[in-house]
Amino acid sequence: MLACIEGERLKKPNKWIPCSARFVCLGNFARGTGVMQIYEVEHGEARLIKEVEKPKPIKCGTFGATSLQQRHMATGDFDGNLNIWNLEAPDVSVYSVKAHKEIVNCIDGVGGLGIGDGAPEIVTGSRDGTVKVWDPRQKDSPVANMEPVEGETKRDCWTVAFGHAFNDQDRCVCAGYDNGDIKLFDLRNMSLRWETNIKNGVCCVEFDRKDINMNKLVATSLEGKFHVFDLRTQHPTKGFASVSEKAHKSTIWQVKHLPQNRDIFMTTGGAGNLHLWKYEYPAQRSRTDSDQTEVGVAGSVNLLQNATLSTQPIASLDWSPDKQGLCVCSGFDQSVRVLIVTKLHAA
């Protein structure tokens, strides 16, 4: 079910370039500078075709707010900068802003690539405790800034994700923090819609789809457990129904939903393994409780396949948006691997 191509030795996050057989790897050199590397997959090999050095190490990147014609990549770096790059001429950024006082840990985009209604926007989360939403058409200041109130402890934001962008008005951002907090911000009403704590640092959050009425959210943690929240029914006090699974014996660094099937997702583990899961819906997704209020009902999660690729953590994975089952991953062993997952239509 899994076939693998070994690539060059390099650093962390990687993203498929939409509508191409190319992907970008981001990270840093040992001398402390940043690097962007563009690879092309051809004849069963991943070939380096371009490498650009940057002043600061790059932590994260997304294509989510760009058009299919431009395919510009937004990145966050260790100095708190948000940059947007034209990969055809990546020496100078086409947009740059000092987004945070400290490292930009995480980034996501929406409104580009034909995914999600409304304006193209980028969300960044930082060690400084803030989550900010940026419109690349607006220079210097964010369109939204979610930060702790005065006197509240600032928590390190490790992960952010857009969702609920199914029309021109609605949009949500979910953020996960080092203390286990998960916060869901409603950008339409500029309010905190829901929050919970999963008792361990939140490594990754992802909606199963960005451009639909909120359906499911997966959150992964330091202790090898992930949680699937059913977002269709929110109870006033109980919040969202959820199911949790002890997937790995170590940190689950990332979760990625299959673009062609929102109920299948991959988790990447601290022991160098990948787990492929499928969510099964319950017979009824909600029920009426004793006070006649609708409450959600969680489904179940089934393991479809797992594989160990390395003795080191797999920290980054990205599915190809164009070819079902094609993905690229990289880890702490500084290797990039291109994988093909087969038989997904039968899952």
From TrEMBL:
WD repeats: 122-135
Keyword set includes Repeat: yes
Entries under Pfam families matching the protein: WD40
GO biological process: apoptotic process
GO cellular component annotations of the record: dynein axonemal particle
Localization per record: Dynein axonemal particle
Keywords per UniProt: Apoptosis, Cytoplasm, Repeat, WD repeat
Function statement: Key assembly factor specifically required for the stability of axonemal dynein heavy chains in cytoplasm.
Protein name: Dynein axonemal assembly factor 10
Organism encoding this protein: Gasterosteus aculeatus aculeatus
Lineage summary: Eukaryota, Metazoa, Chordata, Craniata, Vertebrata
